[in-house]
From TrEMBL:
Its EC number is 3.6.1.59. One of its GO terms (molecular function) is 5'-(N(7)-methyl 5'-triphosphoguanosine)-[mRNA] diphosphatase activity. This is m7GpppX diphosphatase. Pfam families: DcpS, DcpS_C. Keywords: Acetylation, Cytoplasm, Hydrolase, mRNA processing, mRNA splicing, Nucleus, Phosphoprotein.
Length: 326
């Protein structure tokens, strides 16, 4: 077992464009977005100040998806913004109240950017704004629809194996338990800019292969689940001084990739997918399996799917869609 990282130092590095997603273009670490042509705005979220863009680079037919997000303020950055180096343009003045457009120095105006390149049609569909639906998956529907779909699609998770084998992103590892059955690697999720802990987001990826999702878990996995819960909380406390009682620790169903992993987020952070309809608290999962070995093989699970997802189309054909909402 090893624990890399210290309480006072959050691993930092020069901004990069998601090396793990560059695939055949692994050596193409971008220094700028020169030559990028916007094809379409896929989606935007005013609340999170995020935009998803489909485009292409000059002299390439490969698609790219660029995700841009305004980063949260830190104490250091706000001191830089609220200084004489910032220029201001007044837009409204009424008595003691004034509103302004503010232009800080570039180093205090960072935008977190993720580039997926080359991007597949599945990536484009994933980030395109579209209606979402609640489906109700019985154990029979899992066997008849979901599992055959997953096996037929054969989603690539080579990038996960690259992390587990330390071929990629080894410098980002916060903690590792190397046991082949109960061990895991803990590292920051790319949604976290690692500037402050209020939006902390880490992922624990288990070393054991063959666990696709929540549906596969039974009592034989309890040592793994307990280990992730206990040691994950301790590693986060030791490294970032965040108590376990300040963490939301959960499993997605359906997950975004089919190798078992657990999400650790700060309670102050409204992380995507941390709500009902997708997130299952790890402590609840452990309790349920302790009550019944095959709990997740017998339970009907409700979850949300996007309209353009292939799995949704399979459920739609079976008439098992409950409702829709935007």
């Amino acid at each position: 077992m090893s624990n890399s990282g210290t309480k006072d130092e959050i691993p930092q590095k020069k901004m990069r464009m998601d090396q793990s997603n560059i695939n055949s273009h692994e050596s193409d670490i971008l220094e700028s977005l020169q030559g990028f042509k916007v094809e379409k705005i896929l989606n935007e979220n005013a609340q999170t100040k995020t935009m998803f863009v489909h485009g292409k680079f000059e002299n390439s037919e490969d698609n790219a998806v660029v995700i841009v997000e305004k980063t949260a303020f830190s104490e250091k950055s706000i001191r830089g913004v609220l200084s004489g180096d910032t220029t201001m343009k007044n837009t409204l003045k009424n008595d003691i109240y004034g509103t302004y457009e503010v232009y800080p120095k570039p180093e205090f105006n960072e935008i977190k950017t993720t580039v997926i390149y080359p991007a597949t049609e599945k990536h484009i569909a994933k980030y395109t704004g579209q209606p979402v639906y609640m489906v109700q998956e019985t154990p029979e529907l899992y066997s008849d629809i979901t599992l055959p779909y997953l096996n037929a699609e054969n989603f690539s998770i080579q990038w996960v194996y690259n992390i587990l084998e330390k071929k990629k992103e080894s410098e980002r590892i916060i903690y590792e338990d190397s046991h082949p059955e109960t061990g895991f690697i803990l590292l920051p999720d790319m949604k976290w800019d690692q500037k402050q802990t209020d939006n902390l987001y880490l992922i624990a990826i288990c070393h054991k292969r063959g666990i696709k999702s929540l549906r596969d878990l039974n009592s034989s996995h309890l040592p793994l689940l307990r280990n992730i819960l206990t040691r994950g909380k301790k590693a986060i406390k030791d490294t970032f001084d965040v108590d376990g009682s300040q963490l939301r620790i959960y499993i997605h169903y359906q997950p975004s990739y089919y190798h078992f992993h657990v999400h650790f987020t700060h309670l102050k952070f409204d992380a995507p997918g941390s709500n009902a309809g997708r997130a299952h608290l790890l402590s609840d999962v452990i309790d349920n399996i302790e009550l019944r070995n095959d709990f997740y093989q017998k339970k009907t699970l409700n979850f949300i799917l996007r309209e353009n997802e292939g799995l949704f189309k399979k459920f739609q054909e079976s008439g098992k869609v409950l409702d829709s909402f935007s």
